[in-house]
Design a protein that fits this description.
2 helices; mainly alpha; two-stranded antiparallel ribbon; 72 residues
């Protein structure tokens, strides 16, 4: 499992790629990763942000609603 620091480094890397308009990178294992579009890269960033937030014990993005008519 990746550490929080590793995930944060990856997130910074993806954000820099997107800012520079680059769609591919070589990871630490030497594998090349190419994103087909900016939308796909943005989704990867969003997913990693959510993963980091959960690891930090942040708020859940899931909301549970319960309603009742007052009858049992």
């Amino acid at each position: 499992m990746d550490t929080l620091a590793e995930n944060q480094r990856r997130l910074d890397e993806l954000r820099a790629l997107r800012a520079d308009g680059i769609k591919s990178l070589r990871d630490q294992n030497g594998e090349e990763i190419t994103y087909k579009s900016d939308r796909e890269l943005a989704a990867a960033i969003s997913s990693l942000e959510a993963h980091i937030e959960r690891a930090r014990g942040g708020r859940s993005s899931q909301i549970r609603l319960q309603t009742s008519k007052g009858l049992l």
